[in-house]
Structure formats: structure tokens, C-alpha cells
């Protein structure tokens, strides 16, 4: 049987052509087993979830963009997830996980942003594609869009599910526009012109300050998000088997 392909516009470079399967999160982050994926509108219509033998993800990037971002950033993300899982296993605090990760801040930030560009649903991500393209496809580029914020937390529950969500809410008179990706053991939120939308998130904007080849001992203090369940519209869910 031939390799399955799909054509369309690459979500990163916007080129029309053959698309490759983009794992979200990266395959190196334990996203390499069979899953069942279901779009929210399909769930409402009573349609069955679709099986993916490749892991969680979709055909969203061209082969060139997928290959480049994979080679440059995804290995770093896989190492980070391993460090998170080890720290979570050995945690001494019921509310947060503190640990040190030795690696590149910029590679890690770009790996996370690549996931949002590949799978994000918010218009603010789509409208900033040219800036994201330059930032992600020039591996040493450090010009992160100033109006975009990055936050994260430990995601300990429902470890067999992931969600990419299109979200917006008003709280205490403040409007929050953001996109969210959750896949055990992490939850990430990308915001537009706003701070974190809830208190269960750590500020990760310092990851933008690194350089590609620069390796640092990066200190993390990630809240354990016990109560978050994608409480507003979730556009995609996965169940691992």
C-alpha cells in the first residue's frame, strides 16, 4: 500500500502542494502510538472518531517545513518532556513541579510555537503566519512577535487525551484571546495581547530570550493544573489506545 498523502496549503509557508503528517506534540514526546481523533463538530453530529496509526496530529505542513522544524526543534522538545515526566514522578510539592532542564531556550520555544502554527485554530495565529514563517524557518532568528505570549503547566489528568482549542473569554472585565494545546504531561497556552487566562499557568516568555546554539540550565516551576479540562470549546480530542 502506498504512503498516504494529502494536498493543500502548508500552515507555515503557505505553499500549495503535498502535505506531510505533522505530529502534535512531536513524535519524540511519546506521540507515536495509535489514537482516535474527533473534531468537535463531528462529535456534535454523532460521527465516529477517526483512527490514526501515526499518533496525534494532521496533514498540515509541507515536507520541507516538517523536515526543517523537526530536525531543528523537535528533539529538544522530546528531551524536555522526558525531564518533565521525571520531575513529576519525583515531585515533593502537590501543587507544582520544580526542575532544571539543560538545553536551548530558543529551540524549545520554537518547538512549542510550531505546534500552534500547525494545529492552531485562532485567527490571530493565521494572520501572523508571515512573521511565524520567518521566525521558525530561520533557525537562528530571535524575533518573536511582541504581542504573542507563552504560558504552560503540568497537565496530569486525562493523560489519554489531547485538545487543540479555539478559546476566548472575559474575566473580571478583562478579555483573553488565546489558543491552547494539552497533551499529557503538558498544557501550553498562546495568548494575544493578554496575560495568562487563568492562575494555573506559569509564564514561559523567558524562553524567547535564548539563542539557537546556546545551552543553559533553565529553571522551571510549573503549576500542576488539576482542575483544567478545556472548559470552553475544544476543537479536537484524541484517545490513545
- Tally of distinct domains: 1
Provide the residue-averaged pLDDT: 81
State the distance separating the first and last CA atoms: 23 Å
Shape: globular
Given the helix and strand composition, which structural class is it?
Answer: alpha+beta
Report the count of strand segments. 13
What is the radius of gyration computed over CA atoms, rounded to a whole number of angstroms?
17 Å
The fraction of residues in strands falls at 35-45%
The biggest beta sheet, please? 8 strands, antiparallel
Sequence of strands across the biggest β-sheet: 4-3-13-8-9-10-7-11
Sum this structure up briefly.
This protein has 241 residues and is α+β, with helices and mostly antiparallel strands. It has helices spanning 40-44, 63-89, 105-119, 123-126, 129-137; strands at residues 6-9, 16-23, 35-39, 50-52, 57-62, 96-103, 148-154, 162-171, 174-183, 186-192, 202-203, 216-223, 234-240. Strands 4-3-13-8-9-10-7-11 form an eight-stranded antiparallel sheet.
Characterization of this structure:
It is a single chain. The protein has about 240 residues and is α+β, with helices and mostly antiparallel strands. The protein has one domain (about 5-240). Helices cover about 25% and strands about 35% of the residues. It has five helices and 13 strands. The strands form three sheets. It has an eight-stranded antiparallel sheet with strand order 4-3-13-8-9-10-7-11. Helix 3 runs antiparallel to helix 5. The longest helix is centred in the first third of the chain and has 27 residues, at about 65-90. The chain is globular. It starts with 5 loop residues before the first strand and ends with a strand.
Amino acid at each position: 500500500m502506498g504512503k498516504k498523502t494529502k494536498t493543500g496549503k502548508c500552515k507555515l509557508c503557505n505553499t500549495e502542494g503535498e502535505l506531510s503528517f505533522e505530529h502534535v506534540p512531536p513524535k519524540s514526546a511519546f506521540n507515536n502510538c495509535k489514537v482516535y481523533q474527533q473534531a468537535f463538530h463531528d462529535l456534535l453530529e454523532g460521527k465516529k472518531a477517526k483512527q490514526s496509526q501515526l499518533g496525534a496530529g494532521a496533514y498540515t505542513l509541507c515536507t520541507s517545513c516538517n523536515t526543517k522544524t523537526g530536525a531543528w526543534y523537535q528533539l529538544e522538545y522530546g528531551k524536555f518532556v522526558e525531564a518533565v515526566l521525571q520531575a513529576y514522578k519525583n515531585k515533593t510539592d502537590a501543587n507544582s513541579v520544580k526542575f532544571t532542564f539543560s538545553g536551548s531556550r530558543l529551540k524549545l520555544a520554537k518547538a512549542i510555537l510550531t505546534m500552534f502554527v500547525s494545529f492552531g485554530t485562532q485567527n490571530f495565529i493565521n494572520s501572523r503566519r508571515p512573521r511565524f514563517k520567518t521566525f521558525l524557518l530561520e533557525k537562528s532568528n530571535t524575533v518573536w512577535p511582541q504581542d504573542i505570549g507563552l504560558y504552560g503547566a503540568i497537565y496530569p489528568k486525562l493523560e489519554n487525551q489531547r485538545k487543540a482549542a479555539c478559546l476566548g473569554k472575559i474575566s473580571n472585565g478583562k478579555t483573553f484571546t488565546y489558543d491552547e494545546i494539552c497533551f499529557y504531561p503538558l498544557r501550553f497556552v498562546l495568548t494575544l495581547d493578554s496575560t495568562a487566562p487563568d492562575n494555573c499557568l506559569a509564564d514561559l516568555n523567558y524562553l524567547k530570550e535564548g539563542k539557537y546554539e546556546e545551552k543553559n540550565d533553565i529553571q522551571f516551576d510549573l503549576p500542576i493544573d488539576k482542575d483544567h479540562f478545556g472548559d470552553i470549546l475544544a476543537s479536537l480530542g484524541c484517545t490513545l489506545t
